[in-house]
Structures are given as structure tokens and as C-alpha cells.
Amino acid sequence: MEMTGSLPVPSVQAMVAAGRHAPVPPRYLRPDLAADVVVADDATTIPIIDFQRLLLVDPEESARLHAACQDWGFFQKMCTQLINHGVPDDVMEAMKASIQSFFALPAEAKQQYRQQAGQLEGYGQLFVVSEDQKLDWADVLYLNTQPPEHRNLSFWPAGESFRQTLDTYSAAVKHVADRLLGAMYMNLGLQLSIMDMDPERGAGIQSVRMNYYPPCAEAADKVLGFSPHSDSDLLTLVLQVNQLQGLQIKRPPDGGGAWAWLPVTPLQGAFVVNVGDVLEIFTNGRYRSVEHRALVNAHTERLSIAAFHSPSIHATIGPLPELLGDQEVPKYKTLDHQSFITLFFSAKLQGKSFLERMKKLS
Known about the structure:
Pfam families: 2OG-FeII_Oxy, DIOX_N
Low-confidence stretches: 72-77
Keywords: Iron, Metal-binding, Oxidoreductase
Domain Fe2OG dioxygenase: 204-311
CATH class: Mainly Beta
Radius of gyration: 20 Å
Oligomer: single chain
GO molecular function: metal ion binding; oxidoreductase activity
Number of helices: 9
CATH architecture: Sandwich
Order of helices and strands: HEHHEHHEEHEEEEEEHEEEEHH
Mean pLDDT: 87
Protein name: Fe2OG dioxygenase domain-containing protein
């Protein structure tokens, strides 16, 4: 899949290594961050779903998932931590080690896998569409992973270990995403088999974004590792590599207060699961995508792995007819998936502004 790519930017990791105490370039500084409201960290605020109980169609666990999708956060923004998901510990640990090894490579070695003009895959940064926009304090390796025929191995770090590890990990995570989507669709009354997801509505394709957030000793409170956004997919499963807190979810006002950012304390071995824009569109707003951002640490690097699951590239993105009642009006436009992806990656990240553009005019 080729589409509009991102403008090339310097490696933040290399910049930090070259001048650890140098001033942070102005394009990374965000003075408005000081005005943001951040609520106290409370791990119990984020719903925890037991995947094995979900597979057994446990009614309490299914109801908990449905409530998380519909009710958590007051305005129906779904984010959970998924435990007992069945991805073996050794598979997750091998993936973490592979990512750490890649970002520990010399700068010249990583540049072998740099993004090319007009493509999204590779080592670099995404969503840079102008020469004057603010930049994220991060480097990424972004790859198409499932199905295998969508891979461009020229962007995959050489060596059987990395490639085999990512192949095993991506297949295991997609297996979880397929079944999690099946449980969600059953909760919505759609009679889709958990074991045989329709690629037009289920996770037909997967991409993985491996994130490296260097420490920022000079201005950690004035930069962002990842700008506020919602994901363009159905479901995102995020694994924290070194368990360092940084992910924050936007929480709506409670009792007339201000919008606030809620830190997510990652559970060891759990996946943080976010609903994406496609699932919000498919469900006509019943399940809503999660706006989130990533902070950086002043002294320690932070790494994470996000696996994005989307329908087949041949799918049509729009409210599912089966979910629209006789009197329900579609809230979102309908377009082909390729155009949807191209639109998403052709603009900078700015909250849920992309999804707002997908809404129909009333």
C-alpha cells in the first residue's frame, strides 16, 4: 500500500546522543502543555478485562467489556487493559528485546531502514506534513505485518531473529484482536463467528508501530512523545516495553469540570486496548475512539509497541447497515478504505479532528 508519506525529520535519538544538554529545538517545544489538566494516577479507573473468561462467553466478563466500550469515561470512550490474553510471555519478551536491540543500533545502521518518499513504512516519523508544525520527541519503526503478503521486508531489520520474532508476535496479537472484536460484535447483536471474522468488518490487516521516546532532561514537561490523537483503526493493542508510565487518555469532564488527561499505569504483561475511529464509524458512535497522547521522561528512555488492526484494504468504511435502526441516521460518511487511510496519514495529528471530518453534516 503506497500513499502520501511523511516529511523527513532528524532522529531525536541521534540528536540527544550528540548533545545531551543542548537546548531543545523550538519545533519540539509546546508551551501550552502547562495549562493541561492531569488527574491523579489511579490504575483502577481503567477497566481490566480477562480475555480467557471472555472466550468462555462468561456473561459477567462480556457485560464488563460492553460497559467498558459504552460507559467508561462518561462519553463512551473505550480503553481497557487486557489480561490473560494468551500471548506467551516468551513471545512478548522476545519482541521487547528485539525492539530494544534495534534502537540500540548505531545511527548509520538504523538509517538503512529509513522511510522512503511516498511510503509510510520504515524508520523515521509519521504525520509530518509541513515544515513548521510541532514535532514529536520520538523515533519510530513502522511496518505492515499481517497478512504476510503486505510486508515489505526491505524495511524489516536484517537478521532472522528480528524477523521471526516479529512474525510470531504479530500473528499472536492479531489472533487476540480478531477474537476481541468478535466478542464486541456479539455484544452489539451482530451474529459474526468469533472464529471466522469477516475481513471486511474484522481485522483483515495489521501494522505495527515501534516507538522510541528518548529522555529529555532539559524540557520533559514541554515536549510530547506523541501528539494527541485517536487511532484510525478498529482496535489497537499496545505493549509497554519497559513499563515506564507515559501514556495518557483524555477524560471528559466529570460534574462540569474541565477535560483532563488520565495517566495509564501499565500492568505487567497486559495489553492496553484502544477503540479506533473505524470501530466508532462502524458502530455509528455506539463505541467511541480514544483520544490519547504520550509523554516522555526526563532521565529514562521509554519504548512501546502498538499493533493496529483494521479491516481489509478492500472494505468500505461507514456505519454498518445491520446496526442502523429504521429511524437511525448515519452520523458518518462512507468511503473506501484506501481513501480513508490516505486521508488519515495526510494530515498532522490533532486530537479527533480527522474523525470530525468524517461526520456527516446535519
